[in-house]
Specification:
The protein is of the alpha+beta class and 391 residues long. It folds into 2 domains: 280 residues, 3-Layer(aba) Sandwich (Beta-lactamase); 33 residues. It is built from 13 helices and 12 strands. Strands 1, 2, 3, 8, 9, 10, 11 and 12 form an 8-stranded antiparallel beta sheet that branches. It has a two-stranded antiparallel ribbon with strand order 4-5. Strand 8 and strand 9 form a beta hairpin. Helix 3 crosses helix 7.
Length: 391
């Protein structure tokens, strides 16, 4: 019988140790292949929108912008994507008039739903400005909030805004919440003093911000319902009467003509602001929102004619212009990590460096020790038996 030498046995044991060690080494994690990222959309703070004058980026086959648009500021955007297709002085701060009621609704509607009922007091109507548009609220009468909201959107009733603002926590509270809501939506040019849009020192907005409000309103079912209602009944003293929406693109009043696919949203007028308008329309699978502030020619109907022309252009320009900005709010800055979070992150990084982490490194070390012991002990034992002879 052949007896193996201790040296040969040791070599074989060493080979076993190497093989065992290799089996214990964890496999390298697979490297994930990053998918190509889509191009970033034009940011809301695009420098193009900060420039004076008209901004548009036409591609081959793009229609020319309509001539004769005299508004001090205007904007056309895709309401679904938020892409701004063209604009003029988008961030110019101007008085908004009753288009500000769109922001009022976005702020107060969640807190004052239509099913609420409220008894109106004389004090709530005491601050309504002289010459305001009114829906005809009677002190001492109880109204449903839905009727008051129709008074806001259809009759542009400042009396209805005053009552709803009190139901929302008060006049000053509502003004502050509206300014905060504007910033939350990414509108950076709006400062609210009078929630009904009545001229007040320091109260401003912009074509960009108004388009942001209109787009946000299209996502709210109640907002769309109220702003798209052409005619409704309003309760009087023991009887009701018809009220009609002041948005001529919706009703076709005064010879303006309805716009095909019109959805809403809100118009306004004061002597200081001139005529203002937020309008949204849908054609097939595309929805546009336009804002027009203070046309300088054409009289009271010009704001509708110019909005119509810009909507027509926007639908014709689909896929033929590159965006000059976006109505999407800029991303919120990442919160700074506190000491505890930083410590946890450091621990996590150390754990990643350690491979599997947890108990597995210890298990691997123990297995390696056992392999070494076996590799040394078994050859010695065999050699020893061979020296004394085996049967």
């Amino acid at each position: 019988m052949t007896v193996r030498s201790p040296a040969r046995a040791a070599v074989m044991g060493t080979a076993s140790l190497v093989v065992g060690a290799l089996l214990l080494v964890p496999a390298a994690p697979a490297v994930a292949t990053a998918e190509p990222r889509p191009p970033k959309p034009m940011a809301a703070d695009s420098p193009l929108l900060d420039r004076e004058g008209t901004q548009v980026r036409p591609r081959r086959g793009a229609p020319e912008l309509p001539g004769g648009v005299s508004a001090l500021s205007w904007l056309v955007a895709d309401a679904d994507t938020g892409e701004v297709l063209a604009a003029r002085d988008a961030h110019r701060q101007l008085p908004p008039a009753s288009t500000l009621k769109a922001l009022f609704a976005l702020t107060a509607l969640p807190n004052v739903p239509g099913e609420l009922r409220h008894r109106v007091t004389e004090e709530e109507l005491a601050g309504v400005g002289d010459g305001s548009s009114l829906v005809g609220i009677i002190p001492g009468r109880t109204y449903r909030a839905a009727d008051l909201w129709r008074g806001v959107f259809l009759s542009s009733g400042n009396d209805a805004v005053h009552v709803l603002a009190e139901m929302n926590g008060g006049w000053k509270h509502t003004a502050a919440r509206m300014t905060a809501k504007a910033k939350e939506l990414g509108a950076r040019n709006t400062r609210v003093v009078s929630p009904d849009g009545y001229d007040a020192p320091g109260q401003v907005s912009s074509a960009y911000d108004l388009a942001v409000f209109g787009r946000a309103g299209l996502r709210e079912e109640e907002f769309v319902e109220y702003s798209g209602t052409a005619v409704a009944k309003f309760p009087g003293d023991g009887w009701s009467y018809d009220i009609q929406n002041t948005n001529r693109l919706l009703t076709g009043a005064d010879g303006v003509g309805t716009y095909p696919g019109i959805i809403g949203v809100k118009n306004g007028y004061t002597s200081r602001a001139g005529h203002t308008l937020i309008a949204a329309a849908r054609r097939e699978d595309r929805t546009l929102v336009v804002s027009v502030m203070n046309p300088q020619a054409g009289g009271g109907r010009a704001v509708y004619a110019e909005a119509r022309a810009l909507l027509d252009w926007g639908f014709a320009a689909a896929g033929r212009v590159s965006p000059v900005g976006s109505l999407e709010p800029p991303p919120a800055p990442a919160p700074k990590a506190g000491p505890e979070a930083a410590a946890r992150s450091a621990a996590a990084r150390e754990e990643e460096k350690g491979g599997s982490g947890g108990v597995w490194p210890a298990v691997g070390a123990l297995a390696g020790v056992l392999c070494v012991a076996a590799a040394v002990a078994v050859p010695l034992w065999r050699a020893r038996r061979g020296a004394f002879g085996r049967g």
